Each structure stands twice: as structure tokens, then as C-alpha cells.
């Protein structure tokens, strides 16, 4: 008995039973002191000063801990944001995947009955938007693992906008890019609705920008899903400017932060591109929220709300560029009135697009008096109004994408040399005089011969991502 007792440790445990489990005897490791993070409304300039003041050990600690708010903090380097946001995204994925694996069921079963597995509805929302974001990164990265596009998760908040989610995927590092383009989508777009997956807008613009300017490889195109867009044409908010104004505030904050973290080794050229309701959001970001960028591009714009002319964008030496296909019905809603607007609404309703009675979000930037530069954006076979033509602007080879590429890659002069400039829409005249109070509903683009419109304007490329 004494021999057996001699084998026991002084704490009474048998060494054979607690081998490798010396925690009861080992003093607990001191926890690393928490590093306070600036609140989300801190200016990007102050955030950068805070981040630069930290030691490398403190930065590494925060990156390892990856608090969700850090990855969405303007003023933090894009590479750090990407690491933190992808770590948070993986946590959101693994929270469900690990439970499913532990119970021997599929993730879909856990999603259907989260409470049975100790999870909440919030856990499921985080998981579902994490899946869509992960798939968006994979989609933009491309199918060739040996030659992927360089994607970054610049922003990520799966619970934003009541579960619609927020995310921004950048192809190319905006902190090192000479040319950065920010793409803002419109009605019916959200993380939850899958906008990040299956849309080639950012991919096509990135690939074409590299082909258009092969001497400057540092290009970034950001797909920005950072505001609460109307859910669809049945959403009454599509006829109201409030989401555009709120989104404009958010967009301005994110875009203005790009200059704060840019390395400054070369002049940075920033283009902000809005499509549909996103074009109204871009206009409000410039006119109301103080967004600073070099150029604006508005595509299929239903109205510019608080911007009454190009001067309200306050671009300095830059310009407002407009792509509005004559056959795109949404692009005609802005600043129309009376019979033209009612005829347009009747057309849209006949084609199962239930436009609200108050549709119309301000001035049409394609009008000749707006002060914008309009480029060709017609669709092959154009004729009467066609709602499908509202989604043609980013098609590879299209007139619109060629023109967007020239602006975003810093070569707007090519619009003239390549014959891509278009006349603005204009009011009817009596002799040399315009008829007061009548909207600009005469579109010279509608009279272009169909055989002059082709989707063969792509810059030559090997079609493989770089």
C-alpha cells in the first residue's frame, strides 16, 4: 500500500492518469491586455494614426483575435482588413459546420432546426451570408488556382441592414492601385440575395482594365455592397430617395478612406460607378455626403436626386460620365413628367415591372443640359424599350463596358478617339427655341442604325485572370 501511495503525485493524482494534463499544477497564463478599438464613427485619418501607433506585437494580437469591428474600420490597411474579415467569415462558417459534423448531420439540417443543435437564428444568418461571401470570393478569384485574380474581403458584416448583409470584395489591393474603381449596384441587390456571386461586373471591368492599360498592373475594382438597396421593383422604397441618401453617406465614408491608406507612391485615380438605384446613391454621395473621387460613372440612372447638374458632384477636374441605353426604360424615369412618364410607367407595368406611382428620382444625367459626358451604351438589336437592356452595361465587348473601362483605367480621352461619345437627350424645339417645361425625351441614340451597334468592343486579352 505504501509503495502504491509513493507513486502518487503530491496533489494526490496518479501520474499515469494525468499525463500531459498538468493544468491543475500549472499557473494560468496571464491574459493579454485588451487593446481598445476606436468606435466606428472615428475618422479614417484618426484610425490610421491609432493603428500606426501600435507595436507590431499589438497589431498581431488584434489580427489573431480578429474582432469583427476591426475589419470594417476605415483607416486600417486593406491587407489587414482582408485577414480579419476572412477570419470572421470563417468563424461564421465553422460555427455551423462544426456542429453539423459533431452531430453527424448536414449543415442544411442545422440551418433548418438551429435550436435543436444549440444555435440561434443570428448564427444561421451569419452562416448563410458567410457562405454567399465565401462563394463571391471564389467566383471573383476565378477557376484557375494557378492563376487567380487577387481578391480581398475589404468589408464584411453579415448582420448589417437587418440581415441583408454588408460586404465589399476588391479584386486587386486598393492601397497599391494606381486606378481604383468602386462599383455600386442597384435595386434587388444584397449579400443575402446573392449579388456577390454570378455577377461579372467587377470581373469584366478588372480584366478589361488590365488589357486597356498593360503598363500599369496595379488596378483594383471593388464590388461594394455596403448599403441597403431596395429589395426589388415591388419595394415602395425604389421610388423614394431615402435609401440612396443613407447609402450615399456610407459610400462616401468608405471611398474617402481609400486615399487615407493608399501608399502614395503614385497618383491614385478613383472612379465611382453606380448602376440603376446605385447611380442615384452615387450622385447623392457626391452632392450631399462629400464623397471625394476623380470621376463618376452613372449607368441606367433613374434620377440624380440631390444633384441637379454635373456641377453638384464637385469633381474639380473630373467629370460625370453617363451610360444610358435608349432602350433601357429605367434610364428614362429621371426628370420625366406628364404624358412621357405615364406612357413609360404603362410600358413597365405591361412587362411585369410594377413601378410605383411616384417613380422618378430627380434629373436625368443623360440630358444634354446636365453637364455630363455621355458615351455610347446601346444594345445590339435595339429598338423599343426592353427591360433586359437595363442589365447590359457590364457585358464584355459592349459599348458601355468599353467606355467604362476607358474612364476607370485613366484614359477618358479614348472616348473621343474611339468614337464612343454620344449626344445627350434633348427637349423638343420650335425652331431654335426649346419648349419650356417639356422633358428631354428625344434621344439621338435611338436613331442609330442597328448595323452600327455591336458587342465587339472588348480590349484584346488572353481571357485569363491576372
Automatic annotation (TrEMBL):
Region of interest (Disordered), ranges: 1-45, 442-466
Biased composition (Pro residues): 25-41
Domain DUF1023 residues, every copy: 163-331
Pfam families: Abhydrolase_8 (PF06259)
Domain of life: Bacteria
Biased composition annotated in UniProt, kind: Basic and acidic residues: 445-466
Classification via SUPFAM superfamilies: alpha/beta-Hydrolases
Gene3D superfamilies: alpha/beta hydrolase (3.40.50.1820)
Designated name of the protein: DUF1023 domain-containing protein
Amino acid at each position: 500500500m505504501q509503495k502504491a501511495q509513493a507513486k502518487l503525485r503530491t496533489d494526490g493524482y496518479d501520474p499515469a492518469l494525468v499525463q500531459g494534463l498538468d493544468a491543475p499544477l500549472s499557473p494560468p497564463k496571464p491574459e493579454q491586455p485588451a487593446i481598445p478599438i476606436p468606435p466606428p464613427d472615428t475618422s479614417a485619418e484618426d484610425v490610421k494614426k491609432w493603428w500606426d501607433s501600435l507595436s507590431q506585437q499589438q497589431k498581431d494580437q488584434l489580427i489573431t483575435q480578429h474582432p469583427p469591428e476591426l475589419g470594417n474600420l476605415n483607416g486600417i490597411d486593406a491587407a489587414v482588413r482582408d485577414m480579419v474579415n476572412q477570419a470572421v467569415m470563417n468563424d461564421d462558417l465553422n460555427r455551423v459546420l462544426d456542429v453539423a459534423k459533431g452531430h453527424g448531420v448536414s449543415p442544411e439540417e442545422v440551418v433548418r432546426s438551429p435550436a435543436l443543435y444549440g444555435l440561434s437564428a443570428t448564427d444561421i444568418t451569419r452562416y448563410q451570408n458567410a457562405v454567399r461571401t465565401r462563394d463571391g470570393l471564389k467566383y471573383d478569384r476565378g477557376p484557375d488556382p494557378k492563376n487567380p485574380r487577387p481578391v480581398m474581403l475589404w468589408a464584411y458584416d453579415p448582420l448589417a441592414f437587418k440581415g441583408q448583409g454588408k460586404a465589399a470584395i476588391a479584386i486587386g489591393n486598393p492601397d497599391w492601385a494606381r486606378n481604383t474603381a468602386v462599383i455600386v449596384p442597384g435595386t434587388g441587390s444584397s449579400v443575402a440575395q446573392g449579388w456577390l456571386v454570378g455577377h461579372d461586373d467587377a470581373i469584366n471591368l478588372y480584366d478589361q482594365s488590365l488589357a486597356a492599360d498593360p503598363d500599369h498592373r496595379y488596378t483594383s475594382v471593388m464590388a461594394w455592397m455596403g448599403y441597403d438597396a431596395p429589395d426589388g421593383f415591388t419595394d415602395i422604397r425604389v421610388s423614394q430617395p431615402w435609401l440612396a441618401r443613407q447609402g450615399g453617406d456610407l459610400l462616401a465614408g468608405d471611398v474617402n478612406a481609400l486615399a487615407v491608406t493608399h501608399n502614395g507612391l503614385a497618383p491614385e485615380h478613383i472612379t465611382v460607378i453606380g448602376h440603376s438605384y446605385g447611380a442615384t446613391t452615387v450622385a447623392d454621395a457626391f452632392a450631399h455626403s462629400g464623397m471625394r473621387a476623380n470621376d463618376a460613372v452613372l449607368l441606367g440612372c433613374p434620377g440624380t436626386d440631390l444633384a441637379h447638374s454635373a456641377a453638384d458632384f464637385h469633381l474639380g477636374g473630373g467629370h460625370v460620365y453617363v451610360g444610358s441605353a435608349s432602350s433601357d426604360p429605367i434610364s428614362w424615369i429621371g426628370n420625366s413628367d406628364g404624358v412621357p412618364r405615364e406612357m413609360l410607367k404603362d410600358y413597365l407595368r405591361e412587362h411585369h415591372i410594377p413601378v410605383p406611382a411616384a417613380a422618378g428620382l430627380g434629373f436625368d444625367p443623360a440630358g444634354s443640359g446636365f453637364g455630363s459626358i455621355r458615351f455610347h451604351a446601346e444594345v445590339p438589336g435595339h429598338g423599343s424599350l426592353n427591360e433586359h437592356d437595363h442589365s447590359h452595361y457590364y457585358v464584355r465587348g459592349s459599348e458601355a463596358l468599353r467606355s467604362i473601362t476607358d474612364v476607370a483605367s485613366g484614359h477618358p480621352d479614348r472616348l473621343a478617339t474611339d468614337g464612343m461619345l454620344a449626344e445627350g437627350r434633348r427637349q423638343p424645339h420650335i425652331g431654335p427655341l426649346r419648349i419650356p417645361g417639356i422633358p428631354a425625351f428625344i434621344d439621338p441614340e435611338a436613331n442609330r442604325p442597328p448595323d452600327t451597334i455591336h458587342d465587339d468592343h472588348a480590349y484584346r486579352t488572353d481571357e485569363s485572370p491576372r
